[in-house]
Amino acid sequence: MAGITHLFDTxxxxxxxxxxxxxxxxxxxxxxxxxxxxxxxxxxxxxxxxLLEETRDSSESNRVFGLYVNELTESIAVGRAVADLxxxxxxxxxxxxxxxxxxxxxxxxxxxCILVHRDPHMAAIPEDTVRQIVLASE
Length: 138
Fold this sequence. Notes:
Largest sheet: 5 strands, parallel
Number of strands: 5
Low-confidence stretches: none
Shape: globular
Helix content: 40-55%
CATH superfamily: 5'-nuclease
Distance between the termini: 34 Å
Number of domains: 1
CATH class: Alpha Beta
């Protein structure tokens, strides 16, 4: 199989787990034989925290965390090239993009894969910077 094809933002994983808008699109990607998903290393603490906040059950949040992080996706480290690209993405965006999200987008751009998310501020990143699938938010 080829390299990583899609980078899932935390918002995409949470939408999938909770069955929120965009979940069907994420499910279709996970079932696709041509999709090889990954996450940014920065998604790991963000996902862990959000799952615990939302479920309020450490056993369930650990189970779900392990499923997505260890079984369904590969984790990509962040290096200098990604950090530099994140700064350029923040400068080019039409609205403010939080640093973590800029790094996640830069990771996708650097790896030449498709960013999958449902964050309106990430949709403000120019398409020529990073290819995106913007999931339905409602």
